[in-house]
Design brief:
The chain has 391 residues and is an alpha/beta fold. Helices cover 52% and strands 10% of the residues. It has 17 helices and 8 strands. The strands form 2 sheets. It has a 6-stranded parallel sheet with strand order 1-8-5-4-2-3, with helices on both faces. Strands 6-7 form a two-stranded antiparallel ribbon. β6 and β7 form a beta hairpin. The structure holds 5,6-dihydroxy-NADP (NZQ) and zinc ion.
């Protein structure tokens, strides 16, 4: 096991009606004037935005609003939020929504005190030194941004979708998580979220670091729980316990716990981010296409952990033929993805003719000439993975 520092200070307030505590929590973390950030309207339709505002009123916290954040969020809304936040002198950022809203809020939080262009942080030109505190009201279990130290934004100019990892500054101070708020999610978003959280665990699980039994078993355990709960949550969208288990799984999958002591991979996310940047597909659905393709490549070049994944997560009988075991595991994973309504090829995702040359070029521009750790991907390898996804 590698040395590690794990610092995850987010206060998770989980359960029914917890959104009514939002105002008190903002105050607890010294907010006096909040910038509420939200998406395309689901929180207006559900009445959640009004409830959050009521809670802020009761706690005597002032607020202004920035709505209209779209999935795969882009830079113009970040600039708009920075300007609004500065003009209104807010001292707290309050996203009410999913990963796209939270990530926009995170970028605004570090952009407000910074004199330069917030995009500097995403291209590695500068490292954030300060940020306004962030508190989240989560409406979709998926990206895990409520407990992660990351933000992902697409720059429209050049369609570059880049992630920033600065846990000390980007981890929210609190996250309010009421599973009932997720009852209104369409099946597609529920399933895409499930795929994304599984991928967050797998990016950590596929590691060459030896001696990580705790991390391995945590990853396998959470994956198995998700596989059990996924059909339940899709069949019964208002099953509280199923929603609650999936919601907490999304946080555990990405707040760092599952990867402690491991060298993580993250190539599949890099490969997918190019797809959602170019074609504006739902991130989790993009991963349903990319991850099985990556696994197929990995099974050929470093079979060990793929075979372990097959036996321990997908109950494939063990055998000396590790390749066969691994391939059977990948096949069961794809069957599961289909069963929850996910695509497993570009065509099924609605991309008839992906521009693989461009995807490969952008992937290596953004991630370096060699990407990934479990298997090292050069141009040839990443092309092969995109081509497998195109079969
Ligand atoms: O915009 P509204 O109207 O709110 O609708 C949203 C949106 O259309 C809808 N939705 C959310 N909660 C709902 C709801 N509809 C009905 N009822 C509810 N309770 O769902 C749609 C998707 O929302 P979005 O925020 O885009 O989903 P998600 O949480 O999957 O976030 C995806 C973004 O996060 C990034 C992805 O790349 C993508 O840009 N990621 C962020 C990460 C991080 N910060 O740590 C890690 C991830 O790997 C990921 O890359
Ligand atoms: Zn993801």
């Amino acid at each position: 096991m590698n040395n590690f520092t794990f610092y995850s200070p987010t206060e998770f307030v989980f359960g029914r009606a917890t959104e009514t505590q939002t105002g008190t929590l903002v105050k607890k973390y010294h907010g006096t004037k909040a910038l509420i950030v939200y998406g395309g309207g689901s929180v207006v339709r559900s009445g959640l935005l009004d409830k959050v505002k009521r809670s802020l009123d009761e706690a005597k916290v002032a607020y202004v609003e920035l709505g209209g954040i779209q999935p795969n969020p882009t830079d113009p809304k970040v600039y708009e939020g920075i300007e609004l936040g500065r003009n209104e002198q807010v001292d707290f950022i309050l996203p009410v929504g999913g990963g796209s809203v939270i990530d926009t809020a995170k970028a605004i939080a570090i952009g407000i005190p910074y004199e330069g262009d917030f995009w500097d942080f995403f291209i590695g030109k500068s490292v954030p030194q300060a940020g306004l505190p962030i508190g989240v009201v989560l409406t979709i279990p998926a990206a895990g941004s409520e407990g992660s130290g990351n933000a992902v934004i697409t720059k429209l100019d050049g369609l570059r979708k880049l992630g920033l990892h600065t846990p000390a500054i980007l981890r929210p101070a609190f996250a309010v998580m009421n599973p009932e708020l997720t009852y209104t999610l369409p099946a597609w978003q529920t399933a895409s979220g499930i795929t994304d959280m599984m991928a967050h665990i797998m990016e950590r699980y596929f590691s060459n670091t030896p001696g990580v039994e705790i991390a391995d078993r945590m990853c396998e355990g959470v994956l198995k729980a998700i596989i059990t709960e996924a059909p339940r949550v899709l069949a019964e969208p208002d099953n509280y316990d199923a929603r609650a288990n999936i919601m907490w799984a999304g946080t555990v999958a990405h707040n760092g716990t599952c990867g402690v002591g491991c060298e993580e991979d993250w190539a599949s996310h890099g490969l997918e981010h190019e797809v959602s940047a170019l074609y504006n597909v739902t991130h989790g659905a993009g991963l349903a296409v990319i991850f099985p393709a990556w696994l197929t490549y990995a099974a050929k070049h470093n079979v060990g952990k793929v075979a372990q994944f097959a036996t321990r997560v997908w109950d494939v009988p063990a055998s000396d033929d590790l390749q066969a075991v691994a391939l059977e595991g990948i096949s069961r994973f794809k069957t599961f993805l289909h069963s929850i309504g996910m695509p497993v090829s570009f065509k099924e995702l609605g991309i008839e003719h992906p521009d693989i040359d461009l995807l490969v070029r952008k992937f290596h521009e953004d991630k370096g000439q060699i990407a990934g750790n479990y298997v090292h991907l050069d141009h040839q390898a990443s092309r092969e993975i995109y081509e497998i996804a195109n079969q």
